[in-house]
Design a protein that fits this description.
Layout lengths: L7 E5 L16 H9 L2 E7 L3 H9 L7 E4 L3 H7 L6 E5 L2 H9 L3 E4 L12 H7 L9 H5 L2
Parallel strand pairs: 1-2, 1-4, 2-3, 4-5
The protein binds magnesium ion (MG).
The site of magnesium ion has 7 residues, from loops.
Length: 143
């Protein structure tokens, strides 16, 4: 018997990150779905309105686990308090700043074209910049 993969939150910027963005980014929707199969709770976190984000997912017949504005990353984190990791993928300093503020590890989407198969938690974390956000839940448990 195999254990299910631990769940982690994978927040995706759209423009400059996902293939459906304007400009298109390096991350395919198929890769996002494969990440989900590997334990990712997937959704978008973008400057686009929530309605625009839902239309984008609908156009690919995918129901995301969440859609959020960049300022709402902390809410995404609080929605999934038991996730083992929180990762935001984006292409700008704005993404980086909001990710850090909400305690997400940040992955620069420009790295993805070189590593097309980042679909499991370990490979995402290998790409992530050092996290300078609030302490993780694991750290909070320490005295
Ligand atoms: Mg972007």
């Amino acid at each position: 018997m195999s254990c299910p993969a631990p769940e982690y939150v994978l927040s995706l910027d759209i423009d400059g990150t996902l293939e459906t963005g304007d400009p298109p980014g390096p991350l395919s929707m198929e890769s996002a779905l494969r990440a989900r199969e590997g334990g990712a709770i997937i959704g978008s976190c973008s400057d686009r309105t929530l309605t625009e984000q839902r239309i984008m997912w609908d156009s690919r017949q995918i129901t995301p686990d969440f859609v959020a504005r960049k300022t709402e990353l902390m809410d995404v984190r609080n929605t999934f308090p038991d996730a083992v990791a929180y990762i935001h993928v984006g292409d700008t300093d704005v993404d980086r700043r909001w990710a850090r503020a909400a305690g997400f590890s940040f992955v620069d989407s420009h790295l993805l074209s070189e590593v097309a198969s980042s679909v499991d938690l370990g490979s995402w974390l290998a790409l992530a910049e050092p996290c300078e956000g609030p302490p993780t839940r694991a750290r909070q448990r320490l005295p």
